[in-house]
Amino acid sequence: MISSTIRIPRSPQLAALLKAEQESFRHARTSYRVAEREGQIVVEITAEDATALKTVVSSLCRVVTVYEKARQV
């Protein structure tokens, strides 16, 4: 089992997007939880293997990228 934690500076809008993505994300070999702690968004990932870990990280990166691009408009 692989575990990883990602910390992102807190933003209420981004936290809401990540939590919505968490609710719709379904994968047999991996899962993650989003929480807000100490002024940060904390994403805790567990995966059976590196490929499953990559699936979650890619999904999260897409959400963060969309959020960042929307903020620039």
Q: What CATH architecture label applies?
A: 2-Layer Sandwich
Radius of gyration: 12 Å
- What is the typical, i.e. mean, pLDDT? 93
Spatial order of strands in the largest sheet? 1-3-2
- Most strands sheet: 3 strands, antiparallel
What fraction of the residues are assigned to beta strands by DSSP? 25-35%
What is the CA–CA distance across the termini?
Answer: 40 Å
**Secondary structure tally, helices:** 2
Shape: globular
Helix content: 40-55%
Classify the fold: give the CATH topology.
TATA-Binding Protein
Oligomer: single chain
| Weakly predicted, low-confidence segments | none
* SS content category: alpha+beta
The CATH superfamily is Alpha-D-phosphohexomutase, C-terminal domain
SSE string, helices as H and strands as E: EHEEH
| Broad CATH class | Alpha Beta
What is the β-strand count? Answer: 3
Number of domains: 1
Describe the protein:
The chain has 73 residues and is an alpha+beta fold. The chain has a single domain (2-72), classed as Alpha-D-phosphohexomutase, C-terminal domain (TATA-Binding Protein, 2-Layer Sandwich), CATH 3.30.310. 49% of the residues lie in helices and 33% in strands. The chain is built from 2 helices and 3 strands, in the order βαββα. It has a 3-stranded antiparallel β-sheet, covered by helices on one side. α1 runs antiparallel to α2. The model has no long low-confidence stretch (mean pLDDT 93).
In short:
With 73 residues, the protein is an alpha+beta fold. It is built from 2 helices and 3 strands.
Give the topology.
Blueprint: E1 2-9, H1 12-24, E2 30-37, E3 40-47, H2 50-72
Antiparallel strand pairs: 1-3, 2-3
Helix pairs in contact: 1-2
